[in-house]
Amino acid sequence: MFGDEKTLSNVQNILAKQEADRSSFIAGDLGSGLDVSLKYMMQLYSDTYAVTLDTMNGTARCTTTSEASGESSSNCIEGNGSAESERTEKQSEHEKGIAGIPFLHLPIQVHLHILSYLNASDICRLSATCQQCQSICADELLWRDVLKKEKSSWTELGNTSNPALYEDVNSDLGYKEIYMRCNPHCARQEQFDILSIPRFLWSFIPHKAPKVVMFGPGLDSDTSKIVHKLIGNDESGIFQYQGMFPASQPGVGTGFNISMNNKAQLGLITLYSGTKRDRTNVNIPNATRADRNKLLRPTAASNNPDGDETDLKYEPIPAVRDLCSGTDAFIFVVDSSASVEELPEGRPELFAMMSERWTPNKAPLLILSCVPDCESSKIPCVDVAEQLAMHRINRTWKMFDANVSTLSGVVEGITWLLEATNRR
After folding, report:
1. pTM metric for this prediction
2. What is the mean pLDDT of the chain?
3. What is the DSSP letter of 294?
4. Which of 13, 83, 247, 388 is the most core-located residue (most Cβ within 10 A)?
């Protein structure tokens, strides 16, 4: 009954009818993948197996025939059992049927669908088992989906670890290589941590406190409290206020000397987009944040409709330009608890301040993607980098997720900034 030619012909007719109703195989449809897998197995074992479909009960039965000995054995793969006892009785036959169908003999579409539920670490472990698994796990579409799925969980990003950079330049690297380069957990750890030096030895090392300029739209929102945290108004005692220093330019450049962990020192200069009254008055009609920003002024290209992009139609005022030319490092603060539509408003200020015409290219840039507290939702730093078009910034930069209330990410970011400044 199960191994005659008539039954096999019926199975082939059923599968042919299903194939005619479906124009192409969709890898994300598990039901379609199982149909194709069943067709593949039927063709693979057509010499020794007969497959029977029971469309009423949703079961598929594979029967192995042996013409030499006249013996036969039946292995049933149960689809939808109606009772728990019946499923228990069929368990042993089910396992025997699965054992006769090797996993590697399934179509590549089914393999990729199964692997799409794994993370990158599990895929790498599977690729080390055999050569065929290595070939399957190296699929470009698989790693493209892994990169898209996992990059939103990254808490830091850099100028050499930004996926948008490789996509913008049409890099020859595959998605697996891009993932390995951009994932912060795969990045090579720094061999030397300057803040790990004991305090006694630190006093014998000659070092100059770098001058750091802090600016950005995050200073105009709830994340502006980060300034008070840095000048010592924090119970953790990580940052200590050491005094003030005078302005290097008329009206611009007054800052604070602060130390971190009683070791590293830096001179912090904060540049606000205007007075507190100007920052709160955002109801000016037809005016963008760049138009209200007192640090910027329109360039000649802003009057030309065919000129540069909007991000390049502003430049710092002369006093700020002179300040940037003598600055060692920069901190750009952005509020990642705001909406995604508001993030591009800070791009003109970022591009104007980071222009190589007045800002040294060797000056590193730290981007703090801040939230005011632990309860606030945040935009992933990879999305913040995309909205700010960080792949167009031609300098050393790094972005950290930061929490203003706990200073999580702030300490790590400033530590990186000091190390990058000392390596210049």
Report:
1. 0.72
2. 76
3. T
4. 388
